[in-house]
Write a structure and sequence with these properties.
The structure is a single chain. The protein has 2 domains: 191 residues, 3-Layer(aba) Sandwich (Rossmann fold); 103 residues, no CATH class. It is 37% helix and 17% strand. It has 13 helices and 11 strands. It has a 6-stranded antiparallel sheet with strand order 6-7-9-8-10-11. β8 and β9 form a beta hairpin. α5 crosses α6. The termini are far apart. The mean pLDDT is 92.
């Protein structure tokens, strides 16, 4: 029976190289691609307007097809929210619980190793590439807390790390493992060229919304006004879509940025106030208006709807407001930029 390795595969340059190195050694590889609900790439693929987006396949699937290994796509979004709302090891620069995230995923990998018969797992991690989760102490904590001590091979940095069980037992050739460290991607690009890997996405950070300052600001606003326990997958998704404006403690507004986002927001009108401009092309606007909001709340939101429409600048236009069975027609002039900048999350 041959050696089998189970890898965490994003399809990015690092996991591409890690998988290629092991495949070239003759090791049977299977991959796992986790979906947490916070992936920037997947969301951008679905919501960017046609004229601004370049379609690419799921990169993990592309890599699996190219290297001819089986890929498991695992949706963990339903179980992932407690990692975001209460991380044991805290957050990074934004609301990224990177250490707890890795522990969560590694525990899933431990279970999948048993199910697939894999003797060890591997990742595309590079020592020192990410400040919170890829320094030596963090790597040890993640392995210890996930029950995978000695069973995690990092082919891109293994020569700089203590030998793992697959190296000690001779399942992999340590002399063919690499010694990359730090944040530069130049060594990976050079290695890809040497290995004949040409089709891979250009290296870029920020693949998780939780590391994005703008998303983190919107999520923190949610925590501040609703509490962490209230977070659901619907909220996670809604925070990715549209322009978000916090008008007051009692008023939150979302305005679509393109046709895809407008169509998406229409699916989530229940329980929210809806504003639209009937005579001009415009953003679809949803609002949450809490009890005790200012009496002119609807007028303020109507001015936001007017601003995100094709109505002539400075014109007073008709704006429709509905909430359940309630209907009204308002007149509004576009909100000024100073106010929008003050409200924008």
């Amino acid at each position: 029976m041959g050696v089998k390795a189970l890898g965490m595969i994003s399809g990015g340059l690092d996991s591409t190289l890690a998988a290629k190195i092991l495949v070239d050694m003759g090791i049977e590889v299977e991959g796992v691609n986790f979906s947490t609900g916070f992936c920037v790439t997947e969301h951008s693929r679905n919501f960017k307007s046609d004229e601004k987006k370049t379609f690419r396949p799921n990169e993990a699937l592309r890599l699996a097809a190219e290297l001819k290994f089986k890929l498991h796509i695992v949706d963990v979004s339903g179980d992932y929210l407690p990692v975001v709302t209460g991380p044991k090891y805290g957050y990074g620069a934004n609301l990224n619980p990177c250490v707890d995230c890795r522990i969560f995923m590694f525990k899933r990998m431990r279970r999948l190793m048993d199910e697939t018969g894999a003797q060890f797992m591997f990742t595309g991690e590079v020592l020192g590439q990410r400040p919170m989760s890829q320094h030596r102490e963090a790597l040890k904590i993640i392995e210890r807390d996930s029950g995978l001590e000695g069973l995690v091979l990092r082919p891109l940095s293994a020569a700089l790390l203590d030998p793992t069980i697959p190296e000690i037992k001779g399942w992999v050739d340590r002399s063919k493992l690499l010694a990359f460290s730090g944040r530069s991607r130049k060594p990976q690009i050079a290695a890809a060229r040497e290995l004949g890997m040409e089709d891979y996405p250009q290296p870029a950070g920020g693949c998780c919304y939780l590391t994005d300052p703008q998303y983190a600001k919107k999520l923190q606003d949610f925590f501040d006004h609703h509490g962490k326990a209230a977070l659901t997958q619907e909220h996670v998704l809604m925070l990715k879509v549209g322009r978000h404006l916090r008008v007051s403690e009692k008023i939150k507004v979302i305005a679509g940025r393109n046709e895809r986002e407008n169509n998406f927001l229409k699916l989530y009108e229940k329980g929210r106030h809806v504003f639209g401009v009937p005579d001009y092309s415009s953003a679809h606007v949803l609002a949450e208006i809490g009890e005790g909001a200012a009496s002119d709340a609807a007028g303020i939101i109507a001015s936001i709807a007017a601003r995100y429409s094709d109505a002539p600048k400075g014109a007073r236009i008709a704006v429709e407001h509905r909430y359940g069975e309630f209907r009204e027609r308002l007149e509004a002039k576009a909100a000024d930029e100073e106010a929008l900048n003050r409200w924008r999350l």
